[in-house]
Design goal:
Length: 333
C-alpha cells in the first residue's frame, strides 16, 4: 500500500526553557517503559513540562495532517485529501453516496503502518467504501510520549474539522461515518466524535492506550458516538484495562493473545481481529458481569454478541469475553 502526502518543515527555538513541570499526566511513577508498534522499548517521562507545551504548540494538525483516500478504484495507491482544498477532492474517487471509514493510527506510526495496511484491504474487500487514512505522524512521532498524548487531542479536533469541511463540500452526512482508532488513535477517535457533537453512528477503539490516560479527561468515552465499541488485547501494558464503550470485548481476557510472545504483538492483535471480523464475522463473546470478570475469564452471562464488524450494535451494552486461535483464522466462531 502506497500513500501520497504533503509535508511541511517544523522548526524549534532551542533557547526557550524546557524544565518547568506543569502537571503529572497520570498517577504512578514519573518514568515508565512503553513499547512502540515495532516492539522497541522506550523509557518515557509522563510529567508535562513547559518545553513540551511549546513543542506541542508547534504541531499544527490543521496544516500537518494529511488524509489518504482509498477506494475500490484505487485500493493500493492513495489519493491525498487536504482540508479546504476542493480541487483535490473533486479529482478524487470520493463518492458522497458511500459509507466512509476513518482510520487513525497510534504512537510512532504513520499512514503506512500495519494498522492501515491490514485494515484498508479488509474494508474494501467487505464493502464499496470511502476509506480515509489519517496521517497525523507529525504529532504521533514525538519521541516524548507526553507530547504525543497532547497531540492526540489537538489532532482529534483537526480531524473533526476536516470531516465537517468534507461533508459541507461533498454533501455527505455524519450518518455515513465509522471511525476506527488504534492505541493513541483509539482515544483520538473518541475526541473526533466528541467534536462532532457525538453524532457519529459508530466509533471503534482498538486497544486504546493506557499510559497518560487513566485519569485523562480526554480519553475514549462511551458517549463519544451513538454506538461505541472497544477491543482490549494488551491491558495494563499498551492498552487500557477498564471498559470504555457501550460494548467492550476482552479476547482471551484482554492480555496474552495466543500466538503472541510480546506486548507489541498483543497490541496489534486488536486490528487483526477487527479486520477478520469485517471480512468473515465470527468472534462471538459471552457476557460478563464487569471487566474484572472478563480479565479473570470468569464470564457466564446469558447474552452473547459478535465483536467488531461494520454494523453498529445500537442499543446494546455490556462487557464480553471470547477466546481466539493462535493463527488465522483467529475466530473460534
Amino acid at each position: 500500500m502506497r500513500v501520497k502526502g504533503v509535508h511541511s518543515e517544523l522548526t524549534a527555538d532551542k533557547t526557550l526553557p524546557t524544565d518547568i513541570i506543569l502537571k503529572n499526566q497520570d498517577d504512578g511513577p514519573r518514568y515508565q517503559y512503553a513499547d512502540d508498534s515495532n516492539g522497541a522499548i522506550h523509557l518515557v517521562d509522563l510529567w508535562l513540562s513547559l518545553g513540551d507545551i511549546l513543542n506541542v504548540a508547534r504541531y499544527n494538525p490543521d496544516s500537518s495532517n494529511v488524509y489518504h483516500l482509498f477506494t475500490r478504484a484505487n485500493p493500493s495507491v492513495s489519493q491525498p485529501l487536504v482540508n479546504n482544498n476542493a480541487g483535490l477532492l473533486t479529482r478524487s474517487n470520493y463518492n458522497r453516496n458511500r459509507r466512509t471509514i476513518v482510520l487513525i493510527h497510534g504512537w510512532l506510526n504513520s499512514a503506512t503502518s500495519d494498522f492501515n495496511t491490514v485494515l484498508v484491504p479488509a474494508l474494501l474487500r467487505a464493502e464499496d467504501l470511502n476509506v480515509i487514512v489519517v496521517d497525523w505522524s507529525r504529532g504521533a512521532n514525538a519521541m516524548r510520549y507526553r507530547e504525543a498524548n497532547e497531540n492526540t487531542v489537538s489532532s482529534g479536533g483537526a480531524v473533526a474539522r476536516f470531516i465537517t469541511w468534507l461533508n459541507q463540500q461533498s454533501g455527505s452526512t455524519l450518518a455515513q461515518y465509522h471511525i476506527i482508532g488504534h492505541g493513541l488513535g483509539g482515544h483520538q477517535a473518541g475526541v473526533v466524535g466528541r467534536n462532532l457533537q457525538r453524532q457519529v453512528p459508530y466509533i471503534t477503539g482498538l486497544d486504546p492506550a493506557l499510559l497518560g490516560w487513566a485519569t485523562n479527561f480526554n480519553k475514549f468515552h462511551r458517549t463519544d458516538g451513538q454506538y461505541t465499541e472497544v477491543i482490549h488485547t494488551n491491558y495494563g501494558m499498551y492498552g487500557y484495562i477498564a471498559d470504555l464503550g457501550h460494548m467492550d470485548f476482552y479476547p482471551n481476557g484482554g492480555i496474552s493473545m495466543p500466538g503472541c510472545d510480546s506486548n507489541a504483538c498483543d497490541h496489534a492483535r486488536a486490528f487483526f481481529y477487527m479486520a477478520e471480523s469485517i471480512t468473515s464475522g465470527g468472534f462471538t463473546g459471552r457476557q460478563c458481569l464487569n471487566y474484572y470478570a472478563a480479565v479473570l475469564m470468569m464470564c457466564s452471562g446469558p447474552r452473547t454478541s459478535r465483536m467488531g464488524g461494520l454494523i453498529p450494535k445500537r442499543g446494546s451494552t455490556g462487557v464480553f469475553l471470547l477466546e481466539t486461535n493462535a493463527n488465522p483464522p483467529f475466530s473460534q466462531g
